[in-house]
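This section describes the prediction task in plain terms. A model, or a person checking by hand, is given the sequence of a single protein chain and must write out its three-dimensional structure as a string of C-alpha coordinates. No templates, partner chains or ligands are provided. The sample shown here is typical of the held-out split.
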Amino acid sequence: MESKYHVSAAKLNWTDLGDGIRRKILAYNKSIMMVLVEFRKGAIGYKHKHLHSQVSYVKTGSFEVIIENKSEILEEGDSFLAPSDTEHGVVALKDGQLIDVFSPVREDFLE
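The expected answer:
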Protein backbone atom coordinates (compact mmCIF):
# COMPACT_ATOMS: atom_id res chain seq x y z
CA MET A 1 0.00 0.00 0.00
CA GLU A 2 1.54 3.26 -1.14
CA SER A 3 0.44 6.40 -2.92
CA LYS A 4 2.09 7.89 -5.97
CA TYR A 5 5.34 9.77 -5.48
CA HIS A 6 3.89 13.02 -6.82
CA VAL A 7 0.41 14.00 -5.67
CA SER A 8 -1.77 16.78 -7.07
CA ALA A 9 -4.24 17.69 -4.30
CA ALA A 10 -6.49 19.39 -6.86
CA LYS A 11 -7.06 16.00 -8.53
CA LEU A 12 -8.07 14.23 -5.32
CA ASN A 13 -11.64 13.90 -4.10
CA TRP A 14 -12.79 15.10 -0.70
CA THR A 15 -14.25 12.62 1.78
CA ASP A 16 -17.11 14.28 3.65
CA LEU A 17 -16.93 13.38 7.34
CA GLY A 18 -20.07 15.34 8.23
CA ASP A 19 -20.64 18.22 10.63
CA GLY A 20 -18.50 20.65 8.61
CA ILE A 21 -15.39 18.47 8.25
CA ARG A 22 -13.90 16.84 5.14
CA ARG A 23 -10.50 15.38 4.25
CA LYS A 24 -8.18 14.39 1.42
CA ILE A 25 -5.51 11.73 1.88
CA LEU A 26 -2.49 13.31 0.19
CA ALA A 27 0.30 10.73 0.36
CA TYR A 28 1.15 7.62 2.34
CA ASN A 29 3.01 4.36 2.66
CA LYS A 30 2.92 1.83 5.49
CA SER A 31 5.07 4.07 7.72
CA ILE A 32 3.58 7.54 7.29
CA MET A 33 0.50 9.39 6.01
CA MET A 34 -0.27 13.05 5.23
CA VAL A 35 -3.88 14.26 5.22
CA LEU A 36 -5.50 17.62 4.44
CA VAL A 37 -8.49 18.25 6.72
CA GLU A 38 -10.89 21.14 6.17
CA PHE A 39 -13.13 22.54 8.92
CA ARG A 40 -16.00 25.00 8.74
CA LYS A 41 -16.21 27.55 11.56
CA GLY A 42 -17.58 25.81 14.67
CA ALA A 43 -16.76 22.28 13.48
CA ILE A 44 -15.42 20.01 16.20
CA GLY A 45 -12.77 17.34 15.91
CA TYR A 46 -13.93 15.58 19.08
CA LYS A 47 -11.35 14.48 21.64
CA HIS A 48 -9.96 11.06 20.84
CA LYS A 49 -6.73 9.11 20.96
CA HIS A 50 -5.05 6.53 18.73
CA LEU A 51 -1.84 4.52 18.61
CA HIS A 52 -0.45 6.75 15.84
CA SER A 53 1.89 9.65 16.51
CA GLN A 54 0.46 12.81 14.92
CA VAL A 55 1.85 16.21 14.03
CA SER A 56 -0.48 18.84 12.60
CA TYR A 57 0.16 22.14 10.84
CA VAL A 58 -2.41 24.93 10.73
CA LYS A 59 -2.48 25.75 7.01
CA THR A 60 -5.31 28.29 7.31
CA GLY A 61 -7.75 29.46 9.95
CA SER A 62 -7.69 29.39 13.72
CA PHE A 63 -8.26 26.42 16.04
CA GLU A 64 -8.67 25.75 19.73
CA VAL A 65 -6.45 22.70 20.20
CA ILE A 66 -6.95 20.54 23.28
CA ILE A 67 -4.24 18.04 24.23
CA GLU A 68 -4.66 16.14 27.50
CA ASN A 69 -7.14 18.78 28.75
CA LYS A 70 -4.76 21.68 28.04
CA SER A 71 -6.25 24.14 25.55
CA GLU A 72 -4.42 26.66 23.33
CA ILE A 73 -5.44 28.79 20.37
CA LEU A 74 -3.33 28.08 17.28
CA GLU A 75 -3.28 30.28 14.17
CA GLU A 76 -2.08 29.89 10.60
CA GLY A 77 1.53 28.66 10.58
CA ASP A 78 1.37 27.06 14.05
CA SER A 79 1.57 23.33 14.73
CA PHE A 80 1.01 20.74 17.42
CA LEU A 81 2.15 17.25 18.39
CA ALA A 82 -0.17 14.52 19.66
CA PRO A 83 2.02 11.60 20.74
CA SER A 84 0.74 8.05 20.51
CA ASP A 85 -2.20 7.32 22.84
CA THR A 86 -2.62 10.99 23.87
CA GLU A 87 -6.13 12.44 23.98
CA HIS A 88 -6.55 15.43 21.65
CA GLY A 89 -9.18 17.38 19.71
CA VAL A 90 -9.83 20.68 17.95
CA VAL A 91 -12.54 23.30 17.51
CA ALA A 92 -12.46 25.49 14.40
CA LEU A 93 -12.74 29.12 15.49
CA LYS A 94 -13.07 30.12 11.83
CA ASP A 95 -12.97 28.23 8.53
CA GLY A 96 -9.60 26.53 8.21
CA GLN A 97 -7.43 23.63 7.16
CA LEU A 98 -5.02 21.37 9.03
CA ILE A 99 -2.32 19.23 7.49
CA ASP A 100 -2.09 16.08 9.64
CA VAL A 101 0.83 13.66 9.46
CA PHE A 102 0.49 10.24 11.08
CA SER A 103 2.97 7.48 11.78
CA PRO A 104 2.32 4.69 11.08
CA VAL A 105 -0.29 5.00 8.32
CA ARG A 106 -3.93 5.38 9.42
CA GLU A 107 -5.22 2.20 7.79
CA ASP A 108 -8.71 3.03 9.06
CA PHE A 109 -8.69 6.07 6.73
CA LEU A 110 -8.11 3.80 3.72
CA GLU A 111 -11.16 1.58 4.33
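For orientation: The first strand starts at residue 15 and ends at 18.
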